[in-house]
UniProtKB/TrEMBL annotation, chain A:
Protein EC: 2.2.1.6
Organism per entry: Marinospirillum alkaliphilum DSM 21637
Gene Ontology cellular component list: cytosol
Uppermost EC category: transferase
Family per record: Belongs to the acetolactate synthase small subunit family.
Job description of the protein: Catalyzes the conversion of 2 pyruvate molecules into acetolactate in the first common step of the biosynthetic pathway of the branched-amino acids such as leucine, isoleucine, and valine.
All copies of domain ACT, residue ranges: 4-78
Chemical reaction(s) catalysed: 2 pyruvate + H(+) = (2S)-2-acetolactate + CO2
Quaternary structure (record): Dimer of large and small chains.
Name of the protein in its database record: Acetolactate synthase small subunit
Keywords per UniProt: Amino-acid biosynthesis, Branched-chain amino acid biosynthesis, Transferase
Secretion signal, residue range per the UniProt entry: none
GO biological process: isoleucine biosynthetic process; L-valine biosynthetic process
From TrEMBL, chain B:
Keyword Metal-binding: yes
Record has Ribosomal protein as a keyword: no
Domain Thiamine pyrophosphate enzyme N-terminal TPP-binding as annotated: residue spans: 5-118
Thiamine pyrophosphate enzyme central domain location: 196-330
UniProt pathway annotation: Amino-acid biosynthesis; L-isoleucine biosynthesis; L-isoleucine from 2-oxobutanoate: step 1/4; Amino-acid biosynthesis; L-valine biosynthesis; L-valine from pyruvate: step 1/4
Residue ranges constituting the Thiamine pyrophosphate enzyme TPP-binding domain according to the UniProt record: 397-546
Family recorded in the similarity comment: Belongs to the TPP enzyme family.
Source superkingdom: Bacteria
Protein name: Acetolactate synthase
InterPro entries: Acetolactate_synth_lsu (IPR012846), AHAS_TPP (IPR039368), DHS-like_NAD/FAD-binding_dom (IPR029035), THDP-binding (IPR029061), Thiamin_PyroP_enz_cen_dom (IPR012000), Thiamin_PyroP_enz_TPP-bd_dom (IPR012001), TPP_enz (IPR045229), TPP_enzyme_TPP-bd (IPR011766)
Gene3D superfamilies (alphabetical): 3.40.50.970, TPP-binding domain
């Protein structure tokens, strides 16, 4: 099963490599990963999506917790949560394609954020599945480039991941 | 206010921390530190002949005393040579602090002379690591390093120190930090009382229980409490290889250690048990055999200070995260308060079964040598046990001799059995024995090794001459890499690919050339006299080159992918 694990860690050199290294060292899987400092500049928040059965996920969270640089973590998929990913797509858009791509973008509530006579650059935010669906919907149109941030997530309601 | 250079802060901190010996090897990036060592007399430096030996010396010291071992090496090759020793300590959770010189900060990343990203290289084999960014932070970082290395589940910590951090001209205020706080690191303390109650209830109901102790009992200084618990319950006691000594092995309640080469009765008892109470062991593959067939009828209680050890390889019914001492203390008081007692009738039957298993092997553990045949390695270990009255610190390398030592030397106290169990590092033994002898000069320290392992670190004979470290070395010389050869006999139709040691040195001449004493023992009738002579020479390193049967195999041996009880008992018998 897919899990989203969100980690607060020391914003220090080497912390990220310890987390990423742990996954390869112990043969755990990383599907997406993103990391950035938080409002507290001494802390970074790292979100990783991974796949594994209960035993593997338990090991992943336990091993992550053992890292000295990891301050706190939560498996967001254990509770109600919101997940988002940002994607930017560069699509070939000439002639009739231009209107069609624009329409598809509107349906998915994306935005065209850059335009040239032959190319649209589209920004889209949503759950990973929605981004996948958008790429599928673009169908025959030529995809020139796709860039995704990886999943970020937050718990619903009062629950917070903070110190 | 006291102003010190980074280098002086390091030696001063080590002295304030109570470190008496450090083990290391100088080089360019560490020279400011070496100069500081030269200018003080509290911290003594032992110059090894290879950095790997420095880490094993520190490791041996830590295993025997429970205190952290400290290593100092230079950048690049100095640090990479230490890697095997760091990994060895990591796998067996040994507290160690490794100080590595590094090229000057402004050169880092430029492939400078003797530059290695040692933080990167050691990342998967350390508990944590630090890089010094400013000389003023040295005392605090070192305190953190010692704190992390020694608390919770112990382990090695690497501190990378660029040369400019120790420059003699840059001085900063030094205060010894008595305490440090890390917001992201809180070692676990007491276990969950509800869980401990559940465990005790299971213990009181059990009909075929086994107490299973691991290296955590030794590291956590819980052997005495564990023994008390065992006596109160009258359960059979087994240990992992690393747990040897946590319970007196000559006691009737001990069924020996378990696993691949563990005793017949320990493995049988585990397989047939209805309750395994494991404290401080991690159920690794050499202990469990095939986990799918592991202890099919047993409920498992697992106590460990490291939550990630619980449920990692086998399913656990009652997980308890806590220190061994606190959990056992709580178990003991719950047992005292309880109105019921362990099921005496069931235990009587269980003990009868175990005694039958045990009796079936008496006198059949190995076949003694016939007249004219080479000595058996097992009888040599038995002779060492007798000669040292079972009181020695016994250090081993890795291979057949390691298993024979574990099987035939009986340990009644913790911290006396010193072996690289997790990583299985050949070459570990000699330096580890040196580290112990240096710090415990009154104790008998015996290295049981083989000619393969010994040759991996034999350059340290020179260190022993320089610092006067009189360890006793029993070389079980079978002129081959015995364990490799055994597996080749069993799995590769006796095709002995590269397991035969050609061109062995004359060990007697070799050892004597360093100024030590050496004897060659080829006949069984000379063995006891040679031992006696060796142990009588208190102030001398003595090397006994004992020729043993190269055809001998270590048994029992669990059948690959089988259950705990599936064992080869000799070349011809199988359970």
């Amino acid at each position: 099963m897919r899990h989203i694990i969100s980690i607060l860690m020391e914003n220090e050199a080497g912390a990220l490599s310890r987390v990423v290294g742990l996954f390869s060292q112990r043969n755990f899987n990383i599907e997406t990963l993103n990391v950035a400092p938080t409002d507290d500049p001494t802390l970074s928040r790292l979100t990783v999506t991974t796949v594994g059965d209960d035993r593997v996920i338990e090991q992943i969270t336990k091993q992550l917790n053992k890292l000295i640089d990891v301050v706190k973590l939560v498996d967001l998929t254990e509770g109600q949560h919101i997940e988002r990913e940002l994607m930017m797509v560069k699509v070939k858009a000439v002639g009739a394609q231009r209107a069609e791509v624009k329409r598809t973008t509107e349906i998915f509530r994306g935005q065209i954020i850059d335009v040239t006579p032959s190319v649209y650059t589209i920004q889209l935010t949503g759950e990973a599945g929605k981004l996948d669906a958008f790429i599928q919907a673009l169908g025959a149109n030529t995809l020139l480039e796709v860039v995704r941030t990886g999943v970020s997530g937050i718990s619903r309601g009062e629950k917070v991941l903070s110190l | 206010m006291e102003l010190l250079s980074g280098a002086d802060m390091i030696t001063r901190f080590l002295a304030d921390e109570g470190v008496e010996y450090i083990y290391g090897y100088p080089g360019g990036a560490a020279l400011h530190i070496y100069d500081a060592i030269h200018r003080q007399d509290k911290v003594h430096h032992i110059l090894v002949r290879h950095e790997q030996a420095a880490t094993h010396m520190a490791d041996g010291y830590a295993r025997a005393t429970g205190k952290p071992g400290v290593v100092l090496v230079t950048s690049g090759p100095g640090a990479t040579n230490a890697v095997t020793g760091i990994a060895t300590a990591y796998m067996d959770s040994i507290p160690m602090v490794v100080l590595c010189g590094q090229v000057m900060s402004h050169l880092i990343g430029e492939d400078a002379f003797q530059e290695t990203d040692i933080i990167g290289v050691t990342r998967p084999i350390v508990k944590h690591s630090f890089s010094i960014k400013h000389p003023a932070e040295i005392p605090e970082v070192l305190k953190k390093a010692f704190h992390i290395a020694t608390t919770g589940r112990p382990g090695p910590v690497v501190v990378d120190i660029p040369k400019d951090m120790t420059a003699p001209t840059e001085k900063y205020e030094y205060v010894y930090p008595k305490k440090v706080k890390l917001r992201s690191y809180t070692p676990v303390g007491r276990g969950h009382t509800g869980q401990i109650k559940k465990a005790v209830e299971l213990m009181l109901k059990a009909k075929r229980p086994v107490l299973y102790g691991g290296g955590g009992l030794i590291l956590g200084q819980a052997a005495e409490l564990f023994t008390e618990l065992a006596r109160k319950l009258n359960f059979p006691v087994t240990t992992s290889l690393m747990g040897i000594g946590a319970f007196p092995q000559t006691d009737k309640q001990s069924v020996g250690w378990l696993g691949m080469h563990g005793s017949y009765e320990a493995n049988q008892a585990m397989h047939h048990s209805d309750l395994v109470v494991c404290i401080g062991a991690r159920f690794d593959d050499r202990a469990t055999n095939n986990t799918a067939k592991f202890c099919p009828t047993a409920r498992i209680v697992h106590v460990d200070v490291d939550p990630s050890s619980i449920g990692k390889t086998v399913r656990v019914d009652v997980p308890i995260v806590g220190t061994a001492t606190s959990v056992i203390e709580e178990m003991l008081s719950l047992l005292d308060e309880s109105r019921s007692a362990p099921d005496a009738a069931a235990l009587t039957d269980w003990w009868k079964q175990i005694d039958d298993w045990r009796a079936s092997r008496v006198g059949r553990l190995y076949e003694p040598a016939q007249p004219g045949e080479p000595m058996k390695p097992q009888q040599v270990v038995e002779a060492v046990w007798k000669a040292t009255k079972g009181q020695a610190y016994v250090v081993t390398d890795v291979g057949q001799h390691q298993m024979y030592a574990a099987q035939y030397y009986k340990f009644d106290k913790p911290n006396r059995w010193i072996t690289s169990g997790g990583l299985g590092t050949m070459g570990f033994g000699f330096p580890a024995a040196m580290g112990i002898k240096l710090n415990k000069p009154q104790e008998e320290v015996v290295l049981i090794t083989g000619e393969g392992s010994f040759q991996m670190m034999m350059q340290e004979l020179s260190t022993c001459s320089q610092f006067g470290i009189p360890v006793k070395i029993i070389n079980l010389n079978n002129q081959s890499l015995g364990m490799v050869r055994q597996w080749q006999d069993l799995n590769y139709n006796s095709r002995h690919a590269q397991s035969y040691m050609q061109s062995l040195p004359d060990f007697k001449m070799l050892v004597e050339s360093y100024g030590h004493v050496a004897m060659k023992v080829e006949k069984a009738e000379d063995l006891d006299a040679a031992m006696e002579k060796a142990f009588a020479l208190k102030d001398k390193l003595v090397f006994l080159d004992v020729y043993v049967d190269p055809r001998e195999h270590v048994y029992p041996m669990q059948v690959p992918q089988g259950s705990m009880k599936d064992m080869l008992l000799s070349k011809t018998e199988r359970t």
